[in-house]
Specification:
There is one protein chain. The model has no long low-confidence stretch (mean pLDDT 93). The radius of gyration is 25 Å and the shape is elongated. It contains eleven helices and ten strands. It has a five-stranded parallel beta sheet, with helices on both faces. Strands 6-7-10-8-9 form a five-stranded mixed beta sheet, with helices on both faces. The protein is an alpha/beta fold. Helices cover 41% and strands 18% of the residues. The chain starts with 6 loop residues before the first strand and ends with a helix. α3 (65-76) crosses α4, α6 packs across α7 and α9 (239-249) packs antiparallel against α10 (254-265). It has helices spanning 23-31, 40-49, 65-76, 97-105, 118-126, 143-152, 169-180, 204-213, 239-249, 254-265, 269-278; strands at residues 7-11, 34-37, 56-58, 81-84, 109-113, 133-138, 159-164, 185-190, 198-203, 222-226.
Length: 280
């Protein structure tokens, strides 16, 4: 395969099963002048399996601007560079954004070589709505920051997809249960394409207990998917509810008025409160 010169290829690699490597990716890695890898030692297994002898250079989150500059210099010399991560598609919770951005700003062609991606694989087999979703990557490791991040997603109606480290997955599921409620459906997708692949769907409260009871579910590469919040059917109030709210708002602050109107009319308090804000 003849590659164009001065091109940066973004190459997806298997997330576990080496048989998932696409032929085009093999050809690009074999033909490139240099491969920038997240961990060169980790990538050696892949290279050995597919008889790839292209030189490797490390490129990861902690790479400085000098390393980025050196790779860009190679492109300026007309060389072809391939970027890979430890597994899956580069730039999806993996390094590479700075390099791609700089390459494009300097006018170099950037070509994606599609292939495996852990969160896409998890979403396809999870059994949760997949027509609309949001990929959130890794949550903060500190408990307070993690809870704050989850609270900000409390009203998210799309399926939410997260990555999580095995030693934090139980804490994260417990925090999700607290913020989203134990009845919210969620999926743990673990070790995808590998020997101990697990995809398990339960309400969050039950999923927490299931993971707590089996330490094996706290190992390996993990994605957590959570069903989005139910969408409110309508923000409009009926005439009687509007009349009650109007009378109460003349004497009370919006929050108190909404609480009393909810008791009188049976309409959701949040809906009444939001309506009051829209009247200002």
């Amino acid at each position: 395969m003849g590659l164009d010169t001065a091109v940066l290829y973004i190459v997806a690699t298997p997330i576990g099963n080496l048989a998932d490597m696409v032929p085009r990716a093999i050809e690009v890695l074999q033909s490139a002048d240099l491969v920038a890898a997240e961990d060169t030692r980790h990538s050696q297994r892949l290279f050995s399996h597919f008889s790839i002898e292209t030189p490797l250079v490390a490129y990861h989150d902690h790479s400085d601007d000098q390393r980025t500059t050196k790779i860009l210099q190679r492109l300026e010399e007309g060389q072809t560079i391939a970027l890979i991560s430890d597994a899956g598609t580069p730039l999806i919770s993996d390094p590479g954004y700075r390099l791609v951005r700089e390459a494009r700003e300097r006018g170099f062609k950037v070509v994606p070589i599609p292939g495996p991606c852990a969160f896409v694989a998890a979403l396809s087999a999870a059994g949760l709505p997949s027509d609309r979703f949001t990929f959130e990557g890794f949550l903060p490791s500190k408990s307070l920051a993690r809870e704050k991040a989850l609270q900000a997603l409390g009203g998210e109606t799309r399926t939410m997809v997260f990555y999580e480290a095995p030693h934090r997955v139980l804490d994260t599921l417990e925090a999700m249960c607290e913020v989203f409620g134990g009845a919210r459906e969620a999926v743990i997708a673990r070790e995808l394409t590998k020997a101990f692949e697990t995809i398990h769907l339960l309400p969050l409260a039950e999923l927490v207990e299931w993971v707590r009871a089996d330490s094996n579910q706290q190992r390996g590469e993990i994605a957590v998917l959570v069903r989005g919040a139910a969408e409110e059917k309508s923000s409009a109030l009926d005439a009687e509810s509007e009349r009650v709210m109007t009378l109460l708002l003349a004497e009370l602050p919006p929050k108190r008025a909404a609480a009393l109107a909810a008791e009188i009319t049976g309409v959701n308090k949040k809906l009444l409160y939001n309506w009051s804000l829209s009247q200002k």
